[in-house]
Amino acid sequence: MNKKIIIFCFSIFFLACNKEEFLFNNPSSKETGLVFENTIKPSDELNILDYLYYYNGGGVALGDINNDGLLDIFLSANQEKNKLFINKGDLQFEDISLKANISGNSSWNTGAVMGDVNGDGLLDIYVCAVVGVHGFYGNNELYINNGDETFTESAEKYKLDFDSYSSSAAFLDFDLDGDLDIYLLNHAIHTQESYGKASLRYKRNEQTGDKLLRNDGDSFTDVSETAGIFGGINGYGLAISIADFNQDGFPDIYVGNDFHEDDYYYINNGNGTFSDQLKNYFGHTTRFSMGNDVTDINHDGLPDIISLDMLPEDELVLKTSDGDDNIQNQKLRTQKFGYHYQFTRNMLYVNQQNSPFLETALLSGVAATDWSWSSLFADFDQDGEQDLFISNGIPKRPNDLDFIKFISNDQIQKKLNNTKLVDKEALQLMPSGKVRNYVFKGTKNLEFEDKSDRWISNKKGVSGATALGDLDNDGDIDLVVSNINEEVSLYVNQTNDKSNYLRLKFDYPLPNAFGIGTKVYSYHQGELQFKELYTVRGFQSSSEPVIHFGYGSVQQVDSIKVVWPNMTYQTLKNISVNQQITISPEKTKPFNYESLIKRSSKLFKKVSNDLGINFLHKEDNYTDFNRQKLIPYQTSDRGPAVAIGDLNMDGKEDIYFGGSKFNPAKVFLQKDSLYVEEKIQIIANDSINEDVVALIADFNNDTKNDLLVGTGGADFYDKMKPLLDAYFIQTDTGFTKEQLPKYYENASVIEAYDYDNDGDLDVFIGNNVVSGDFGDIPNSYILKNNEGSFSLLENQPFQNIGMITDAIWDDYNSDGFTDLILVGEWMSPKFYKNTMGSFVEESVIDSKLKGLWQQIIPFDIDKDGDVDYLIGNWGKNSKFKATEKHPLRMYYADFDNNGSTETILCNYKNGSYYPLLGLDELASQIVSLRKKFTTYKSMAGKSINEIFEKSILNKATIFEVHTLASGYLENENNRFEFMPFVNELQVSPISSFLEYDFDFDGKKEILVSGNYFGVTPYHGRFDSFPGALIFSRDSIVLGNKLGLEFNQKAVKKLNIIKILGKPYVLATINNDKAQVYKLTH
């Protein structure tokens, strides 16, 4: 056969085999009869310049309104009439809007939800509207189901005819009296009154404030004020999720607010009132909160949350869009106005049961999905893991930076205020925001895999409200998506019989016939799946009142526990898959919600008086970014120093705490049962220094402990005296200050060891950065000790090796000599063999392993008898992206030839390296870029090779990071392979390890702490790591389960202190109060 023909045939065969069918197909309205388009026509009188929520769209509500076993569709519109479509089977739909009398009389409808308002077992429809602004008229409308495919509008009768700025509504039985109450979600509009302090939320406004409406049978009563529901003029409510977040049997509420107002996390107190607990359970939230949804993503039986924002993935859009606050504005919002930390990206909150949530969206791969409206969790491919669908798009992008620059011009502002003449020009400057939707496949390790290219069409559009249910009764989950200026989309799932499922419907006693609030725990082959029935999800929509589970190839479910809203339960066993089951309460028993609380052993108990250690570290006001605007993170906030040792020769260990700049160090002496602060004047005199690390030891062999303090702070520079480390010798009468060699560095670690076996302690001092010149490599030294007098051991292989953060002395090669191991930022772990006081670097790691390493400790984590090394890194929950093949890069050079260096960080994306920062940020340091790029669009989407001349880049030093994961170096015959920790330990930088037998079982464990806040708002805050206790490679327990309170704390150092022979854990925290924990075993 002709060779070309063979190759051609093989190519066709290969392409055919590799062509993966979409998981969803999109039949047209001609095929289905689902003819609906939410058409919005801007005019000179009304457009997005006049009404900021002009493009939020309408709603979607799914439910079987005629109880024929087929799922019907209700669609609300903004400028069009509402429509109701009856499902006739085989994906055929009939428009019965006129017959049903649901077209509506309001001029601007928004969200639409279905629920049984009057408790007759039929689904009613509640439609929200915006009324009282820009000439919008009407009111929220309630369509009571008559049971014959007709409805009677009854909002006034039930006192639900609100004429406010409504976004959506949610059904819940908040008081557990058996009927369904309503939470009405309203939104504000920008006025002078809507800006101000967070306390605005306490002053109720009827048009913008949310409402909690109690069902009293014949009508609803507004109980918002007495229930503790905020109703201020600053409440920009766009989304709501209901779930029993704390698993006490009462439904709680999560509300997503747009703009400056915080989200609300209402915990149900069980007495008809709610308490907003947002700041207690969330270290930060989305800034422009859009849609949200709830499900259990990690099989622990707890409801997790996603909240959407508008961070683009596409480089062009990303660099032309307004994003996060600057540092000064954020400080103003949080410290002066009382708002919480907010950042412009999606957030994924993993429930930690009565402890603060882990926030993992960046790690999980779902942080950037552009202008995102609705998020819906479901097991679309029925493999037993929760997947995620996100709808996207806006016709015009009002956050486009070139547009903002145009309308910010004073002359343009005057014209906008006084005439409509510039409206058209302004609207034309807004680029299109048509984008594709996203769908992610869930996995077992908190990560999601982007399947948008393989599961759904890549068609760009403007999709908003989305609801899910089984439209064709084949068992899998379909979607209905409302679009703007395009026909509504059906996403018909093609999983069919490829994977197994169960659908659960509930026949619960009236007036809650659909069993809203029912919880289901499914168990198969040792795996738990949990779901809770609330239909209002995503954005301005409600979904089918059914619970769906996927099981992959599993044929039988071991058991299903159904917990009813009245706190009773029943259990079904040995259930065959691939069926729909209707469950009614039968032989129920009282359910004990205490049984859901995971009672792990609390190894740590916070000591209320901290044993007298009343130390509060106060960081000084220096901000690194004011001097070097493009650095990746601060280096001035690495303190405080802490050291443990006997400082007064009484045989008891005391504590030294270093001070920040202009704050003196503090010493706490141990007395009989407490510590007492003692001022040592000569030590306190060094208050101008920033004390970063310290060590207490006997350096001159006189049996008295001395003190060595490493200074830094990255504020002082060149040969300023505060950069000189301090050395205090203890004598019979106190302390005297002795001289050290004069090296001017920013210290990061001090580790003592007699490396030359001459009988006195030598010291390795590692240094991290050069002040004002991030990227320049500091010198690190061994201070050679000669009877208490130190000299520099220079010209060693590690002297200029990198930005050191930690060091240990350990015999890694088992040759009987204690060696030196270093870790640092933008470098690999370094191993230096010590041969009789001479050091040589050895290559003992088999892969590229440059990281932003923070800590190292020896520990046999795999219990095979040799020593491994745990190493703390930056973590994977970051906008930094790094792999061995495509490392994170930092270009270090004088880009504008002004005598000062700059650093530009770049991520790899689609074949090129792109700066993380945009034009404003880059040009704030490299002013010449303003001349080269006169618009944001002119630079957006350009790689670093396109932004800067080749000659400049050729002069740059390129730093790289191959992994951001924390993990351990596994020892295999004195060679080491890196193994990452589980993802729960990757949410924040790890800052400290502590080895001890914490449970007194004769085996040592490693306590881990972290979190870090020294980044710009672009990066957010690394605040949700609760600490962890590592027993072994396969046994790691998060600190919140053990009694630790490390969330939202930047824990700098962990130490064991002993008083009266009992051990305690001392946690020293940057810019916060130190904590002391008792070991309970």
Q: Please outline the major beta sheet.
A: 5 strands, mixed
* Number of helical regions: 19
**Structural class assignment:** mainly beta
Oligomer: single chain
User: Mean of residue pLDDT?
Assistant: 95
* Rg value: 31 Å
How widely separated are the two ends? Answer: 79 Å
Strand content: 35-45%
Structure overview:
The protein is mainly β. Helix content is 10%, strand content 35%. The protein has 19 helices and 72 strands. It has a 5-stranded mixed sheet with strand order 5-4-3-2-34. A hairpin with an 8-residue loop joins strand 2 and strand 3. The radius of gyration is 31 Å and the shape is globular. The protein starts with a helix and ends with a strand. Mean pLDDT is 95; it is low at 1-19.
Topology diagram in text:
Blueprint: H1 3-18, E1 24-25, H2 29-32, E2 60-63, E3 72-75, E4 83-89, E5 92-95, H3 97-100, E6 109-115, E7 124-129, E8 141-145, E9 151-153, E10 166-172, E11 181-186, E12 211-215, E13 220-222, H4 224-227, E14 237-243, E15 252-257, E16 264-268, E17 274-276, H5 278-281, E18 285-286, E19 292-295, E20 304-307, H6 315-319, H7 327-336, E21 342-343, E22 347-350, E23 358-359, H8 361-364, E24 372-378, E25 387-392, H9 401-407, H10 410-418, H11 423-429, E26 438-442, E27 448-450, H12 452-455, E28 463-469, E29 478-483, E30 489-493, E31 500-506, E32 519-524, E33 527-532, E34 541-542, E35 547-552, E36 556-563, E37 568-576, E38 579-583, E39 589-590, E40 604-606, H13 624-627, E41 642-645, E42 654-657, E43 666-670, E44 675-678, H14 681-684, E45 691-697, E46 706-711, E47 726-731, E48 734-738, E49 747-753, E50 762-767, E51 781-786, E52 789-793, E53 803-810, E54 819-827, E55 830-835, E56 838-842, E57 851-852, E58 855-859, E59 868-872, E60 888-893, E61 902-909, E62 912-915, H15 919-925, H16 929-932, H17 936-939, H18 944-947, ...
Parallel strand pairs: 2-34, 18-21, 31-38
Antiparallel strand pairs: 1-30, 2-3, 3-4, 4-5, 6-7, 7-8, 8-9, 10-11, 11-12, 12-13, 14-15, 15-16, 16-17, 19-20, 20-22, 22-23, 24-25, 25-26, 26-27, 28-29, 29-30, 31-35, 32-33, 32-36, 36-37, 37-39, 40-72, 41-42, 42-43, 43-44, 45-46, 46-47, 47-48, 49-50, 50-51, 51-52, 53-54, 54-55, 54-57, 55-56, ...
